[in-house]
Amino acid sequence: MADTVDSLVARMHELLVVHLTQGPAVPAEQDVLSSLGLSFLGAPRRVDVAAGLHDLIARAGALGTDGTWLVAAGHASLAGMAVAGGRADQALLHLDAAVTAGFNDCVALHVDPIRPLHHDPRFQALYRRIRITQGDLDEYFWLHAEMQALARDVSNASVDNVGRLDTGVSPLPMPPMPTREPDTPGVLITRIDLAATRTALQQAVMKAEFQRSAGNTSLSLIDDTWDLPRARHDARYADEADLLRRRAAEARAFVERPGAGSVPAPCPPLGSLTYPA
Length: 277
Prior knowledge:
Structural class: mainly alpha
Largest sheet: 2 strands, antiparallel
Low-confidence stretches: 25-44
Shape: elongated
Region (Disordered): 258-277
Oligomer: single chain
Strand content: under 5%
Strand order of the largest sheet: 1-2
Radius of gyration: 21 Å
Mean pLDDT: 90
């Protein structure tokens, strides 16, 4: 079957999910997955994500201009892996290739592990080449803030669910993805990053929830001392908490700022941006 943009987007998403669930990642959501216990996702599957990304870059390049932003996505992810592995020179090579292919997420370039590169003249040169619109910059801030919000939601929910005796299952609520037409294709890269983060976290949450629910069901059938009133109380409390989380997620939906500029311009000065906490 011939490659298409859609098929390679799906492949990129798959590779990022595997990377988040099996190995170190730059964003803080990796810590949340670790705290949940990666065993929730089943037996570890060691996949050579780097090899997969190199293959994706080659296949996306064969699509011509339609696949250029996916080439950028592949190089940006390889750069992140190189940074996490302490391979600064390799990270800079991939970042340079990513910027050449259209990567312009200057917010991501202010995450803490990247900051040591700010002093490197090679990084400064590639950063100066990036062009972005105010509208896209607004969305980048939202996309990265949402990754952090999801990580907090998972942490809070995992604490709330300790000792729950009911058999209900609480999924991770999420606001809708932005539907605006981006001014530059680089935004699509970070949208895939967020989508992969959502998938990885949701898988972890749901696996843990189904295990808890099944365990409680089994215990309620065999344990004569099972606290049914407590289980009913926990179910009501969980429903209320789920409703609050859904409302909070809905309130986080991206709202395009009226009058946000759509003309590409240089990124804000290096070091002037703060990665969402």
